[in-house]
Amino acid sequence: MIRSSVSNCPVPTDQQPLNEYEELKSSWLFRDATLDWRKYITKLAWIWGLSWLIAGPIAAASFPPHKYIAHFMLCGGAGASVGLVLILVRLYLGWFYVCDRLCSPTVFYEESGWYDGQTWTKPQEVLNRDRLIVSYEIKPILRRLQFTFAGLAGMYVTGTIVWHLF
Q1: Which of 26, 40, 51, 63 could join 80 in a cystine, given CB atoms 3.0 to 4.6 angstroms apart?
Q2: Where exactly are the transmembrane stretches of this chain (predicted)?
């Protein structure tokens, strides 16, 4: 973990925005959003494929594959995408939370429990450092996730159009 450069920072180490960022960046789920595009898409494809284990039987119960293969595939694909969307929402919310904490000129923290919340105003040097991290590290991740959501929305629209053609 990176320690704040300000020695008089009263915020507990695990609640400092920079340390929250480092922890998020190294956690098993959230680091997937930082991978290069090919590995990122591969991970998403694996999640979507594993979601078929749940969506496939449900789609097969509604649209037997031997009779309605197109409807089965579209329904199963859309159902499997639900698992993918849930993972992506979790990724987006986690990265957005850290982004918000780093961008904010003040840091809300708790010393020992929910009842003793305090606020610390960041010195300008810390605020500048944190905002640089947001600009160069976190904003691209958030844009990637937004682009992924847009791609999924496009696939849903395309699937809906194809559904009505059959």
Answers
A1: 51
A2: 44-63, 69-93, 145-165
d(C-alpha 111, C-alpha 136), whole Å: 31
pLDDT digits (tens, 9 = 90+) for 80-134: 999 999 999 999 999 999 999 999 999 998 877 667 788 999 999 999 999 999 9
Q: What angle do CA 74, 78, 83 make, to 5 degrees?
A: 150
DSSP three-state, residue 117: strand
pTM here is 0.89
Closest CA to 84 of 138, 31, 44, 57: 44
Q: What is the Cα–Cα distance from 142 to 135, expressed in whole angstroms?
A: 11
The answer to whether position 153 is within a domain reads: yes
The reply to whether 2 falls in a domain is: no
pLDDT at site 1 = 47
